[in-house]
Amino acid sequence: MRVYNTLTKQIEDFIPYDDKEVKMYTCGPTVYNYAHIGNLRTYIFEDVLEKTLNYIGYNVKRVMNITDVGHLSSDSDTGEDKMLKGAERENKTVYEIAEYYTNAFFKDTNKLNIKKPEIVEKASDHINQYIEIIEKLLEKNIAYISNGNVYFDISKTKDYYKLSGKNKDELLIGAREDVQEDIYKKNPADFVLWFTVSKFENQAMKWDSPWGVGYPGWHIECSGIAIKYLGEQLDIHCGGIDNIFPHHTNEIAQSECYLGDKWCKYWMHGEHLNDQTGKMSKSKGEFLTLSLLEKKGYNPLVYRLFCLQSHYRRQLVFSYEGMDIAKNTYNKLIGKIKLLKDNPEGEIQHDLASNFKIKFKKTIEDDLNTSSSLTVLYDVLKSELNNKTKLYLIEDFDKVLSLDLIEHKEIEISEEQKKYIMKKISERNEAKKNKNFELADKIRDELKQNGIIIKDTREGTEYNIIKEV
Ligand code: AMP
Ligand code: ZN
What we know:
Blueprint: E1 2-5, E2 10-13, E3 21-26, H1 37-55, E4 59-66, H2 82-90, H3 94-111, E5 119-122, H4 127-139, E6 143-146, E7 149-152, H5 168-174, E8 191-195, E9 215-216, H6 218-230, E10 234-240, H7 244-259, E11 264-270, E12 273-274, H8 290-295, H9 300-308, E13 316-317, H10 320-342, H11 350-365, H12 370-382, H13 387-401, H14 415-433, H15 437-449, E14 452-457, E15 460-465
Helix pairs in contact: 2-3, 4-6, 4-7, 6-7, 9-10, 11-12, 11-13, 12-13, 14-15
Bound molecules: adenosine monophosphate and zinc ion.
Adenosine monophosphate binds next to α1 and β10.
């Protein structure tokens, strides 16, 4: 397998420390709000990566953290604590917010057929681990205490900028938010390992430490959790590209200084999903969540397909037109596969099938070229293979694609429900004809409340049943 390594800025052969088991760490969500579909794009990429590794024969031990504490929007202590902001917004405790949005996150990932990592750990459950690392860094004189906080001194590391590939001046100019002049720091890019002086009066999550009551900085959680569960040698660490600096840069600095050795071999980053305005954000414009897409009548797996159609290292612009195309493609695929399932004739043609398997494997092994993998799938459907062989191959490819291609389930509705929907649609059409738009909207809303989304098209009114209502 070949993968692009952000650390070396090139595509490399993938050779894990242990040739049987790959150790993989993925930065988890900050659970102060719903994930947006941009975040979910990153988790789809990581899921494809894990399943590809399985497909080619590796066991994968994968760990993910849940950031429920200490994620500041900036590395200096002038930033905002997103968790605290979420709690204030919803008048709940930080713990309630964390629990609610962690569950919401896994509901979303489940709908996207993203496998839950084997080990999922909350940042707030590993305080002792962080304290141990910080103590060692202080002992080694790599960390220092200033104004009550413990800082990491980046001048003590060699190659601090090796992951981001930027130099110090560029970062100072380009990333004011992340790198701030601060009278208490020795270097502007120094970052906090432990906060004891907090500007947040009502900080709910705080713990005792050798440096006073406080809470950990954001970056230390991933180093702490990764080292605790995966040991001192990590094969792959991934996240979205915004994680490269400062988060992953700081993770490398503190982990390697703590361990006294090289830590992670491959750093893989997914490009962003952008909206039409450029950047996806939870605060501006329409907040694009998976449930919003469902409410608009898109099956979550249509979004998965939308992502798989492009390479994870390419920016992807979200649009409803793009989603409609993906929906069309998905429905056609499912329709064709249904015909095969209705008539699964023949014996599996293993010789011919293995050629397609080799082609498929080549595409995903090539830095997860999922759009080419989909082409191999379409080639199978177009081929002269018998139905049984086609189904066999589709099932095999779906181990990685995870689009429910074989076991696709329509949401079952009874004849009675169908009659009800058709009656409501015709009442609505009647109301529209009579220019009674108020009634038409009322009927649409009533259907929506019952989990039925309708859409007017040139061919008439279509309806979609959404999964969870
Ligand atoms: P957060 O919950 O903010 O910690 O982000 C969770 C994951 O989503 C991280 O790996 C981020 O790098 C990633 N991410 C954030 N914004 C986007 C985006 N617009 N597109 C893709 N991934 C993103
Ligand atoms: Zn992380």
